[in-house]
Write a structure and sequence with these properties.
The protein has helices spanning 3-21, 30-34, 72-75, 86-96, 123-128, 202-219, 230-241, 264-269, 315-330, 357-360, 391-397, 433-436, 468-478, 485-496, and strands at 36-41, 44-50, 131-136, 144-149, 156-158, 165-171, 243-250, 254-255, 333-336, 352-355, 407-414, 422-427. By secondary structure, the chain is of the alpha+beta class. It has one domain. The two termini are 29 Å apart. Bound molecules: heme C (2 copies). One heme C is lined by residues 70, 72, 74-76, 107-108, 131, 133, 171, 173-174, 176, 179, 182, 185-188, 210, 213-214, 217-218, 221-222, 236, 240, 448.
């Protein structure tokens, strides 16, 4: 279908469905339902709720505040679960012939030297939805870095403007929604300028972090020559903090937020959260022990009563989602070679221990980690055996659709898993190590909030998993889960209903 007609068809479909879901029959206040932006995704419908009234697209989040025509919504689109997909980028490239501000060469191309209409030079954003993030090597870096594979020519260079050694990494836009559950801002936590670890300071610190993030996004992505005014920055942060995004409707299971279930954005907006809630490592400030059963949205579908009528077709699909939720909470996995856990002195550096998905995704019904705990689960390693010495990680990464990323050689670091020995290794994204300069932070990224997933493939910070099924296959290998094919489908069905 031609892209313009596709857009119109999407909008018409969303409008008719929105009319349906605001129809009577739901217990929620009608004004909340009326404030949900509904958009189709490959598995059903995604809803983005703004709790204080409908989304006003004239506010500063939607304004061009810089010099290249971009707004925050260029990369955080309410119709795209406050992120965007490669299909969306591809459509915009086609309709604008590559001239849309999304493709500004500062970070919307493989390198900043790429010309506006050069499709090949924009392959990472068009195929994997990735933006280029240029990060300086910190002056105190404990390691040395060199590049062994540089597919686009700007992996590691002295930045022409700042004259500092700068690394290009490529990352997915994290959704600018559900932010009132964050424990770290950005994959590598670089915008967490005030810590999100204490209930008393949480709201003020979150606002401070998001304000700084909005300033940096305006001068960075939008290439503004000056920061947004305090009024504009406040407007952006107020807007973001009012948003809740979750899957609302599943093609097979039907509505996700009725009949005793608690999916969808309205329930999510009422979800309780505080720093350390349900912490895996026993740091819940209320002293409540960790409960691995962190996801409790669809338990009532585990034993669907026998029903007749239209429901009968949905029963199997609902039971699969409930089974997937139970797997998320209970399926055992063996956690090894994870930087941030297996080398963590606070945990006694366990070579291996048993856990579940919720060991790392512990925030109830939200799925990030309720305290900052960036981890290296292997997603920035490569599947190429000459670059990856751990066969388990290499086989796990080979389950993914890894984009063609630069590969860096890191040397001069102690081996976290063999104390006393030094090591060199390869990575596609040093992540937190580029912020702190510490060897112990290599490849460590936050586990993002696991809501609104169905609308924002591909997954992981670098878009390496094309689908949630691929995410599940990765975990099955990486943590030796031994899932059956049916269990993998169930887990993926659950993730798609979040
Ligand atoms: C050119 C695309 C682009 C534009 C424009 C953009 N962002 Fe982002 N945004 C990203 C990317 C990519 C990330 C993830 C970066 C990372 O993890 O290193 C991100 C991350 C974020 C996050 C962090 C979410 C989290 O879970 O940590 C917030 C909040 C955010 N952006 C808000 C904004 C705001 C506000 C604006 C406008 C002032 C904006 N963004 C403009 C691409 C963009
Ligand atoms: C050892 C900790 C750990 C365990 C166990 C774990 N995860 Fe994750 N998860 C992470 C981290 C860290 C990330 C971010 C990785 C990245 O961005 O590269 C992540 C990312 C994800 C994402 C991608 C989200 C996005 O927005 O791209 C999904 C989906 C996910 N995990 C699901 C699961 C499921 C399902 C399980 C159980 C089978 C699981 N996780 C077990 C730490 C963990």
């Amino acid at each position: 279908m031609n892209p313009m007609r596709f857009t119109r068809a999407r909008k018409a479909l969303a409008a008719s469905i929105a009319a349906f879901i605001v129809a009577p029959g739901y217990a929620d206040p009608a004004h909340l339902r009326a404030s949900i932006v509904v958009a189709p995704d490959p598995h059903g419908l995604m809803g983005t709720l703004k709790i204080d009234g409908p989304i006003d697209r004239s506010g500063p989040f939607f304004q061009s505040l810089g010099t290249n025509g971009r707004s925050c919504a260029t990369c955080h689109d309410p119709e795209e679960a406050m992120s965007f997909t490669p299909a969306h980028a591809d459509m915009i490239f086609a309709t604008s012939r590559g001239k849309d501000p999304l493709f500004a060469s500062v970070d919307g191309a493989n390198c900043d030297s790429v010309a506006a209409r050069d499709r090949a030079g924009h392959s990472l954003i068009l195929q994997n939805g990735l933006l280029r993030i240029a990060l300086p090597v910190p002056p105190n870096a404990e390691f040395s870095i060199s590049v062994v594979s540089d597919p686009y020519g700007c992996a590691l260079r002295i930045d022409p403007k700042t004259h500092v050694l700068t690394v290009s990494v490529y990352r997915r836009p994290l959704p600018a929604t559900n932010l009132s559950f964050l424990s770290a801002v950005m994959s590598d936590g670089r915008e967490t300028i005030a810590p999100l670890t204490n209930g008393a300071s949480y709201s003020a610190n979150l606002r401070a972090d998001l304000t700084q993030q909005a300033i940096d996004a305006t001068t960075g992505h939008a290439q503004a020559t000056s920061a947004p005014t305090p009024g504009q920055a406040d407007g952006i942060v107020d807007f973001e903090l009012a948003l809740y995004t979750a899957q609302l409707w599943d093609h097979r299971a039907g509505p996700l937020d009725g009949r005793g279930t608690s999916g969808g954005p309205i329930h999510l907006a009422a979800q309780s959260y505080y720093p350390g809630i349900n912490d895996t490592l026993g740091q819940d400030p209320n002293g409540i022990p960790f409960d691995p059963g962190a996801m409790t949205l669809y338990g009532s579908w585990a034993q669907t009563p026998s029903v007749s009528g239209p429901d009968i077709e949905n029963r199997g699909a609902r039971a699969r989602i409930a089974a997937g939720e139970l797997l998320f909470d209970t399926a055992p996995l063996t956690i090894t070679h994870v930087r941030g856990l297996n080398d963590n002195p606070a945990l006694g550096q366990p070579a291996s221990f048993k856990g579940t998905c919720t060991t790392c995704h512990d925030a109830p019904n939200v799925g990030n980690h309720s305290l900052p705990l960036p981890l290296d689960i292997g997603t920035s390693h490569t599947g190429n055996p000459s670059f990856e010495s751990d066969p388990v990680i290499a086989s796990a990464v080979s389950q993914l659709s890894m984009p063609n990323l630069p590969v860096f050689l890191i040397s001069g670091c102690p081996d976290p898993f063999s104390p006393g020995q030094s090591t060199s290794f390869y990575t596609t994204d040093p992540a937190r190590a580029l912020i702190t300069g510490h060897c112990s932070d290599f490849n460590r990224v936050k586990g993002p909030i696991l809501r609104g997933l169905a609308a924002r493939a591909p997954y992981f910070h670098n878009g390496a998993a094309a689908t949630l099924r691929e995410v599940v296959s990765f975990y099955d290998q990486r943590f030796q889960m031994g899932l059956t094919k049916a269990q993998k489908e169930e887990l993926a069905a659950f993730l798609n209903s979040l």
